[in-house]
Structure formats: structure tokens, C-alpha cells
Amino acid sequence: MAMDQKALIIGGFHGDEQPGYEMVDGLVNELRNGTGPANTELAFHTLIIPRLNRGAIEDHLSGVTSYDRRCNRQLVDLNRSLPVFGNNRSSPRCPNSATAPVQPENQAVIFLTAGARRYRYAHLSARQPAGQYSAGSTIGQTGVTGNAVADRPHLHLEVQQNNRAIDPAGTFATPNMVRAAFNPFAITNINFSEAENCNPCAM
Fold first, then answer.
1. What residue spans define the domains of the chain?
2. How far apart are CA 49 and CA 32, in angstroms?
3. Which of 16, 65, 74, 155 is at a distance of 20 to 30 A from 138, taking alpha carbons?
4. Residue 91: CB partners within 8 Å, gap ≥ 6?
5. pTM of the model
6. Distance in angstroms (rounded) separating the CA atoms of residues 54 and 74
7. Rounded to the nearest 5°, which phi and psi values hold at 79?
8. 18 Rama class: left (phi>0) / alpha (psi -120 to 50) / beta
9. Alpha carbons 168 and 182: distance in angstroms, whole number
10. 66 or 38, greater pLDDT
């Protein structure tokens, strides 16, 4: 395993699932003591969060029963408090999951991992500030900024991993249709035989 690769290990998403965080606790102790296979087999950068839902874990261990310790203390299921879920974040045992904002526990995870992968959008006429967005969010408007041909608005996307450009094919499928900006109901096939809209293209 190359040293420029990274792993994220999280324990304790749910305060009442004791084996999960106990196993991660054991891994941390093994690394601290310099013993066991983890010290030779984890041959890459590893970020470990042993007890993400720390408050609920403490309450579960001390016998608090006033709420379901699957949730955090704000009655949110941390498994449903991530931008990837969009608006579909309901959890039958944690009643505030569908309406609460992304919880501080998960915001910390997002902050710690945000530098690993970045998405750059070029030639936009307008854009939202850099940050975290969920599926379906508007992040910009197609334009002709930069060295794009004036009468051919379009978007160029670059995916970076650890500050290096990578092939976005591993993240996105190649689009075959486009939606007109002036008419959101007008969808046409992309003509791949047309020349590049800018040559050479610059981000």
C-alpha cells in the first residue's frame, strides 16, 4: 500500500453499539503500544475517530435511558446526518434526523477529510462559494468565462485527489444529454463530434 494513500476508521456512530467502538479502541491501543499486526499492516496514513457519538456512548455506559442512544443527544442519527443523504434522512428511532442540520460530529469528519478530494468547475458565469454541497444543489451557472468560445457556453470539470488531477471517470459517468439554461425542460443529446469549445482549454 502506497504511503500517499489514506484510510478513515470511525467507531461509535451509534452510542448503543458497543462492539464497534470497543474494536476501534483496541486498534488505537495497539498502535500506541507499538505491538500487534496493526503496526505493520497499516502501511499508509490512517485517521482514526474511535468514538464519534461520544455523548451517547457515555450516556449508554452510565445507564441513561431518557432517549434512544442510537441517536446523539440532539436525537439525530449520525448515519443520516451526512450531505450525501440530501433530504432523505429520516430515522425511525431518532426523530430529529430528517430536519436537523448536519451535526457537529459529522461536520468534524467532513472538515478532516475535505482536503483529500476537490472538484473544480471552469467557465461558469456564476457560482456558489467553495464548500460542501449535497446532490441536487445548485453550485453554478454555465458560462463562457476564461478562454471558452463566446457563443458556446459549457462546463469543464476537474477532479483532484491530494492536489493532483485524476480521471473523473472513476467518479462520474460520461453525460450524454444536456439541459438548456434558458429552458429547463429542453433536454438534448450531446454532439460529441463537435470541436472542443476551447483549445487548449484552461481551468
1. 6-113, 117-189
2. 14
3. 74
4. 71, 76, 77, 79, 80, 97, 98
5. 0.54
6. 12
7. -65, -20
8. alpha
9. 27
10. 66
